[in-house]
Amino acid sequence: MLTHLRFALCAAIALAAIWAGNASAFWPFADSTAHLSRAPAYAGACEDCDLSGRILAGARLTDSVFNGSDFSQAVLTRADASGSEFAGANFTDADLRRTKLIGAVCPRAVFERATMVNADARGADFRRAIFSAANVTRMNIEGADISGADLSTAAGLTQRQLDTACGDRRTRLPDGLRVRRCD
User: 155-179, pLDDT tens digit by residue?
Assistant: First the structure.
């Protein structure tokens, strides 16, 4: 009986070690030997960083500065980037499903072909951002400023979403949709 218990305990420890190794996420802000398990967190500045293709699912990137950074083809599903700055950042082909961008500052950011389904971008600044062929289905843009943004080819954009945001005469929208002017 004791032998069986020891064997079961050793097997459980081995499985836990394997699971923890698979759940680790390489974090791009440290040296190449650094690994953080589960959801990595970062608060600080990483301007003009190349984070293209990185798996940052579930990452906590709140109140950080990523101006000019490249997130193309990155996976940011369920990441929390609330209050962060992404001026001129590139999110081409990025996966931003269920990402929190609450109060994020993203002027001139490029979201070309990005998947932003169910993203929460309440109060975000998307002035002059580009959303060419981006999927913004059920994206919450309540209180967001989309002045000068190009959403003309964005998929899933509805009048209901636009009724909660604001823009200006330079805001480009799909035919038949409109947005109120920002104060």
Answer: 999 999 999 999 999 999 999 999 9
**CATH classification of 56-172, choosing from 2.60.40.1500, 3.40.50.2000, 2.60.40.10, 2.160.20.80?**
2.160.20.80
| Distance, CA of 72 to CA of 63 (rounded, Å) | 21
Residue 116 burial (CB count, 10 A): 28
Query: Within 10 A of 3 (CB to CB), how many other CB atoms are there?
Result: 7
State the residue for tokens 């209180």.
143
Enumerate residues 6+ apart whose C-beta is below 8 A from 6.
Answer: none
Boundaries of every domain in the chain: 56-172
pLDDT, one tens digit per residue, over 95-154 is 999 999 999 999 999 999 999 999 999 999 999 999 999 999 999 999 999 999 999 999
Distance from chain centroid for Cα 56? 9
